Amino acid sequence: MTQPKIDTSPKTWDEIKTTTCYMCACRCGIKVYLKDGTVKYIEGNRDHPVNKGVICGKGASGIMQHYSPARLSKPMLRVGERGSGEFREIEWEEALSLATSWLSKVRAEDPKRLAFFTGRDQSQGLTGWWATQFGTPNYAAHGGFCSVNMAAAGLYTFGGSFWEFGEPDWKHTKYFLLFGVAEDHASNPIKIGLGKLKARGVKIVSINPVRTGYSAIADEWIGIRPGTDGLFAGALIHELLHNQKIDLDYLARYTNAAWLVIRNPGGADDGTFARNANGEPLIYDAVIGRTLSAHRADTSPKLVGEVTLVDGRRAVPSFMLVAERFLSDEYSPARVAEACGISADTIRRIAAELARTAFDEEICLNIGWRDWAGRIHDKMIGRPVSMYAMRGISAHSNGFQTCRTLHLLQIILGTIDVPGGFRYRPPFPKPAPPGIKPAGKPGQVKPNTALPGPPLGFVTAPEDLLIDDEGTPQRIDKAYSWEAPFAAHGLMHTVIANAAKRDPYGIDVLFLYMANMSWNSAMNVAETTGHLTAKDEKTGDYIIPHIIYSDAYASEMVHYADLILPDTTYLERFDCISLLDRPISEADGPADAIRQPITEPDRDVRPFQTVLLDLGARLGLTGMTNEDGTPRYPGGYADYMVNHERSPGIGPLAGWRGKEGVFHGRGEPNPKQLERYIENGCHWFYELPDHVKYYRHANRDYLEWATSFGFIGKPDPIVFQLYLEPLQKFRLAALGHGAVTPPEAHRGRILRYFDPLPGWYEPIEESLRDKGEYPLHAITQRPMAMYHSWGSQNAWLRQILGRNWLYLARSRGEEMGLEDGDWVQVISATSRIKVQVKLMDGVNPHTVWTWNAIGKRSGAWALAPDAPEAKKGFLLNHLIAELLPQRDGGYRYSNSDPVTGQAAWYDLKVRIEKAEDETEMSAPQFPVLKGFKGIAGRRRA
């Protein structure tokens, strides 16, 4: 008898659609398998330029994100006290009408009384433009928490940065340094890249206090003490300079190393560049024996030695100042070894390995190219050393200067945008810094009027600050004020506290999108929730009168909002991953992508981007309405993606432009553009010709192409700024020079931290705390299975990591008599928490750490009140101070980098004591958040 044949792989789908993942910031291409309209399976798209088919656990778990019981299901209006969870379900028309009434009143009276801040959304090109059209300067996204030090330091130094702005040359690099990168960042692309390096036998060195993820597969792990990365990089520079292992030709050609810096102590021009009558910086030509414009190509610039200018002033090349600093004993390996926790011999060896790889293993590609001056080169020379860094160095109060020091290290080796080095991703490089200035000065914020420019930009002098004549900040977060002059991403972490204190003024509407500000994104959770619920003692009204919140899920923040606008999941909407926003480009060429609706929502929800455009039309915002007052984008976000033009021919999507879809980069709107993207797997990629893939900061053909594509305004070379004159202008202002000078309380701070040369200083909070009382650094990092805080309510990802522990060095734990599973009190100068410990070997002995984004508040995210995320999980946020303890003239600064305002999460210092309370539960425990009807899981129940 024949046995029936069993199909072991039955077809379980009837349709496959492509889109873009949203389970982290990589934005990989995915294929979604459906059966009767239900998502059954997600896999990587092999044709996508980002992940080339690779998918991680997060991406595959998108199906559980899409069907999460924590999804919001209906617009809601608060009817009880904030935090009570008492809401009334309402219809969309009522919700939008109410939001419009609140917002229109603000816009008619004082637009800056709207604070509009977004979390890790990927549509900042739209949200920033919306804020500009509304007229409020109070806009920013999550970068002030995460990476503004990284972005600003790179953009001010060489017109690019780590993370989405560039990547290592995975194909050609021979030595790779990885600084402070946790495994949630760059995820699939970096894993693919590391795999290539491993296959080629490339040495990978990871500098990180914790050895997990990428550090665990590194050939060498250097367990540095937190906050000392800049000191370590400075010691490497010291060794390279001492041994004359630097690329002098690269420095002379592509940087401001030869630009003459005036030495006139006490003078208004001290530390500024010497310039000719046309305003061009000067260099000293060693052959001709006189000063010439730095913009000339036919020069032999001198890099050391003092010069007397024609007017008698003295000046030196900026490189000489760099050399003086880093050749000093302050940066010698012997001097920095103890502070970094790295032996002097290790520092010297790493420096020697860098030098040997860069100069003895030089790469030569037989590809001709033309530089900015028209000179023809028959080959491309590469220094095959590459570096990559992220939040681990960025989230310190010395992060801006640390990042600049890393870039200096790359530049003196000649490794930026060369074969084997660090490569730009289009639309970068940009001018260093980009020429966009922030808008929001007094007189620029007017009722019912758009701002004259974007709320975010790049300050180059005190005159660019958003302050009034008394120096008072004009933004609620104090970005672009004397407190954080270079705040290119804003200070999202200060908004709620400042608004509650009405410092520098009160606001009427707080509008948040996907920003869990009452929990995971709060510095000091108890104080933050107190600010959100604070009432005016005289009137009894909330100090922040109206809070509008949009999210797809029932995060902790929902309970503290007045009006909830429920968002879709990423599989239910159109989205735009734009070159105007956060690019997904590869180093070999520009790329962008879309998301398309895979399924229709089964709840009464709308895409936030479409809702925002609807609100803009209802408010009569110029960019969102026609002359007759009708909506300009009646088709919502998809309509905007196709038809919006930021400037003539430049829109959100670069592919298939023009009425016939035959142009790329620049062209008229194409009514069938989205169809073309969907046909191509929801992405577009343009590979650059080989002769413009490197040296793009000085490659004439690339610069001309980038200008035609709209990436830059004109095809001028991007000159790397070793010495950053804008910082010196702030120092001069602090000395009383210029028309705009800081109040007395800020002068010492500006003089201390606004050094035009890269360098290191001790993290500010650490310098102000008693090291004996708080001997340990406490840091967090995100696990590979998480990105957003929403990941820990995902049914599959929870099985990988459903709770967290406090990890500390085994040697330290044994000294304290601790064993795995013991409960301890972690105590900072701000607060204390009770957590459970685990001992490990791969951690700096002066450091404790945990996984971020795991701990949840009981009752949130549709989790059971006794879920392990709530009862044993925890956040270090409770321990982090919003403000620094020091006072200058009675003023207390935010706990941030003094240059950029980056939240200094990683400066936290603590001590540990064994817990006397034997209850098997983390602390603090807040009251359980009350459930409400407007959640998908509750509606089904």
Structural features, described:
The protein is globular and about 85 Å long. The model has no long low-confidence stretch (mean pLDDT 95). The longest helix has 18 residues, at 92-109. With 941 residues, it is an alpha/beta fold. The protein has a seven-stranded mixed sheet with strand order 5-4-25-24-23-6-7, covered by helices on one side. It has a six-stranded mixed barrel with strand order 29-33-30-32-31-34. Strands 11-10-9-21 form a four-stranded parallel sheet, sandwiched between helices. Helices cover 26% and strands 16% of the residues.
Helix content: 25-40%
Number of beta-strand segments: 34
Q: How would you classify the helix and strand content by structural class?
A: alpha/beta
Strand content: 15-25%
Discrete helix count: 28
Cα-based radius of gyration, to the nearest Å: 27 Å
- Averaged pLDDT: 95
- Biggest pleated sheet: 7 strands, mixed
* Poorly predicted regions: none
Query: What is the spatial order of strands in the main beta sheet?
Result: 5-4-25-24-23-6-7
Envelope shape? globular
How far from one another are the termini?
Answer: 49 Å
